[in-house]
Design brief:
By secondary structure, this protein is of the alpha/beta class. It contains 13 helices and 15 strands. Helix 6 crosses helix 7. It starts with a helix and ends with a strand.
Length: 388
């Protein structure tokens, strides 16, 4: 019995030791290798693969540029890919695996919900997490290793609402929320007071579920209402199908929403039904204003992608890696426990998506908002809205 108890205790101690080693995947051990590893967390397959694919493209472009210029602290950067297949239940496992592979930072996830889950793992592991897409609330509050380089919904949605009122004359809207989707629920909670502030009445509220394909009942309810447009706070797949159902039932209003609608899948799936739909983002290709490193990034992306133009996910993925690399250089360390404080002190940093300053809460202050419109199966800049 005493021997069995000894073996049990020894096994338990070994298990704890292995878990502790896993939680310390970044930091000094990662810094001692031949390369500095940065993890990618996102979906390269599945329903939201566009976000992940584009983010990774931008990251790879940044790593290529950095390594061609000599690397970081005399070492090459290396991307370790973590594909969760757009499956939120797999995200935690993928995040932990990246940490055990020795990454010093993780760029991802492009979505708010999964970013929050990953942050709960990265914070106690003391690995920096930089989301290049999470725009919802309650992200950086998780801890001082958690960052993002995006234009926040809390900033963008009120600015867009003001534009809808003053420039397009919207006075009444229908509000559609994807229930159970943190991104959508968060954005709805931001749009509601913004609409009230601008005197825009919500005449109808409808709830849908992610991966739903039949919206006939919700749209039928909207046919009984008088409204100028739809505020849609969910993702592009459901947005496209919702608009097709609206056209089927004879409704001609367009929708406006956040960057969850941003993806060629919106117009590929929605066709003529989404023509005129509006999507805001923290980056867009605006030929009238693009210059310097932004213009260089756009041309390089086009050269590598058959002439296609980048969107906010690829651009913010690029900036995320550049931010991390500059923080490591400034801190003279790739240990996240060291360079996270240098990262937090970032002021007036010039990226391809604009100027970024982290405030006292490590939230990015960015301007402007790019409002894009679907026109002839493409996103075109409709308005550039400054943030004061």
């Amino acid at each position: 019995m005493r021997k069995k108890r000894f073996i049990f205790l020894l096994t338990a101690l070994l298990a704890v030791a292995m878990l502790t080693a896993g939680c310390g995947g970044g930091g000094e051990e990662a810094a001692e290798g031949d390369t500095i590893k940065i993890g990618f967390l996102g979906g390269l397959t599945g329903a939201h693969s566009h976000y992940g694919i584009e983010t990774l493209k931008g990251m790879k472009m940044a790593v290529e540029d950095i390594n061609a210029a000599g690397g970081v602290l005399g070492k090459k950067l290396e991307i370790v890919e973590g594909d969760h297949g757009s499956n939120s239940s797999e995200a935690a496992n993928v995040t932990q695996k990246l940490i055990t592979q020795g990454v010093t930072a993780i760029v991802g996830d492009p979505t708010t919900g999964i970013t929050k889950s990953a942050a709960q793992i990265c914070q106690p592991a003391q690995v920096v997490l930089m989301s290049a897409g999470a725009v919802g609330t309650g992200v950086v509050e998780i801890g001082d290793f958690i960052y993002r380089d995006v234009l926040l919904d809390a900033v963008a949605a009120p600015a867009v609402t003001k534009y809808l009122k003053e420039e397009l004359g919207w006075g009444k809207v229908a509000l559609v929320t994807t229930t159970g989707l943190p991104y959508s629920e968060s954005l709805t909670s931001i749009f509601k007071p913004a609409l009230e502030e601008e005197g825009i009445e919500i005449v109808a509220e409808q709830s849908i579920m992610e991966k739903d394909t039949n919206f006939s009942a919700q749209v039928t309810e909207l046919t009984r209402k008088d409204f100028d447009g739809v505020i849609f706070t969910g993702y592009y797949t459901e947005g496209a199908l919702f608009m097709k159902e609206m056209r089927k039932q004879g409704l001609n209003q367009v929708m406006a929403g956040g960057d969850g609608l941003l993806g060629k899948e919106l117009y590929e799936l929605g066709g003529n039904a989404v023509e005129g739909s509006m999507v805001y983002a923290g980056f867009a290709v605006d030929k009238e204003t693009a210059a310097g490193k932004t213009a260089e990034f756009i041309e390089k992306y086009k050269a590598n992608n058959d002439g296609n133009i980048p969107d906010m996910f690829s651009a913010q993925g690029y900036d995320a890696v550049m931010l991390l690399a500059d923080a490591m250089e400034a801190a003279d360390s790739s240990d996240p426990k060291v360079f996270k404080d240098t990262l937090a002190a970032t002021k007036d940093w010039e990226g391809v998506t604009g100027t970024i300053t982290f405030d006292e809460n490590r939230e990015p202050i960015k301007s402007p908002v790019y409002l894009q419109e679907v026109k002839d199966n493409a996103f075109v800049v409709k308005a550039v809205i400054p943030i004061s």
